[in-house]
Amino acid sequence: xxxxxxxxxxxxxxxxxxxxxxxxxxxxxxxxxxxxxxxxxxxxxxxxxxxxxxxxxxxxxxxxxxxxxxxxxxxxxxxxxxxxxxxxxxxxxxxxxxxxxxxxxxxxxxxxxxxxxxxxxxxxxxxxxxxxxxxxxxxxxxxxxxxxxxxxxxxxxxxxxxxxxxxxxxxxxxxxxxxxxxxxxxxxxxxxxxxxxxxxxxxxxxxxxxxxxxxxxxxxxxxxxxxxxxxxxxxxxxxxxxxxxxxxxxxxxxxxxxxxxxxxxxxxxxxxxxxxxxxxxxxxxxxxxxxxxxxxxxxxxxxxxxxxxxxxxxxxxxxxxxxxxxxxxxxxxxxxxxxxxxxxxxxxxxxxxxxxxxxxxxxxxxxxxxxxxxxxxxxxxxxxxxxxxxxxxxxxxxxxxxxxxxxxxxxxxxxxxxxxxxxxxxxxxxxxxxxxxxxxxxxxxxxxxxxxxxxxxxxxxxxxxxxxxxxxxxxxxxxxxxxxxxxxxxxxxxxxxxxxxxxxxxxxxxxxxxxxxxxxxxxxxxxxxxxxxxxxxxxxxxxxxxxxxxxxxxxxxxxxxxxxxxxxxxxxxxxxxxxxxxxxxxxxxxxxxxxxxxxxxxxxxxxxxxxxxxxxxxxxxxxxxxxxxxxxxxxxxxxxxxxxxxxxxxxxxxxxxxxxxxxxxxxxxxxxxxxxxxxxxxxx
Length: 684
Hints:
This protein is of the alpha+beta class. It contains 15 helices and 29 strands.
């Protein structure tokens, strides 16, 4: 929740950024409190990868009890949602294949305004807002969810509040101003207060963790201490789930709205030596998804499948303890359906509207790590005619501002959105999408390769349109293909390419694909997704590129070729331009990344890559009069690849540098100056 988020730039930057320390605090000068480092609990966050979270906006969801209503708020809903409505919806949520519920804040705000209805400016962290329900209903919700094998995640706002906060049971209150609070405060009351809040609800109700609003408002070092308080409370608390006595999960996930990822790393994950939070919502991936299957809020879109690979590659910059949470929508963003309409791509009356929903959510279902689904997305929900609205100063009164229009009334099969209203029954398209997503969640739950498998991108001739991943966890191996376009393709790969020497089984319809002449022919329709089980995985796994070597062969891999005078056939100086460290987001042309001409139409530069990294790049002149990139959008180390003109936004390539060392970047321009070949190779 952020009243100014709609103004934040949506540009996705894949640069590497240094992580911040964990000991800052006080007035920004010398720390007055030394935060205690606390490692991420590997068992908790390995378990957290199984999470399939269903998010609801509490005041906008379902009105289950007319005694508890706000009746006013932001967005277009009835503003009558409550805890009983969530309780009444648990069977439905479970039927979708989701195993966790996250609700926006439910603590007492002494509500008398639209803002209070959001829950994001509370006054009493230790009481349930009477406009949402009672403590008894909160307890029932948690217990009923646990009885169904589902976790419950509360929404924690630990960086700002309404002011004049009610003291904790131990008599503590946060120090400093109300937005944001001062951290940690000269007497450290603020940190101790929020430790008490975070652990209290684990002990009192057995909740399984926290979604953390605007987590950058809290020093990253303080998050480590709050996380420890939650985990300690969890170890001392038990409940019964699926017939077993268990501890609350103690999962904590940061919300830091950052399209590039550097702030998430700095202010959320923190450094390897003193982790802050161990999980954060993957905003960079979210923007890549919407840019590829629809448009983002700014209207930017039209990206191809390589954009998704680039987003995955960018995760290499995260610290080792990072467990990103994949998602597409939430209460601050436009619904996917409204983005399709904003981009003039498809309307709900078009089959493509539903096909693109299926493609996007199939991609999310194959994401390694926890995932989150916003209520209503499973039925392709949208706000009618919103895409045609012109933003103006009255959008808040109309409920049509970008950052809250998705807070429309919940629609749950067999329930009325509000007391006395009509029972919702999905139409054919809504039911079909809902059933498809349910089948995806069921498939995901049964296959750890999907939610925690290591991925290897499979290169093929149609990589610009068809995303192709090899995913493996122990003996569970799956090939995931996702067509981001409306065209059909025939994909041919060898068994060595995909690490298979037997049949592939389509896990959604049980059809099989046989290996023939050492390879596979895979047919994929427009916007179709395939989950192919590898029935006979090879011991060495997928083999692509130069046999797994980082060192290529041939003249493009020569790190010591002598320079030839002049600028060659391009007759201009060329650089690697990109969002690598020092590249200034494609704006800089440092000497360390400047090509020299080697003769025979070949240009090369040797770069000292000092650490494992990932970035987007082009080979370009200083005035952008020439710009080239890999024809597939992804550079594979030690592999000679086709290169083509890459003019305009979103045409860059991505590369993963898997280990430090010197690498030669080379390209051979063709005689027409319209493309050629390229290679990135490690120097021996």
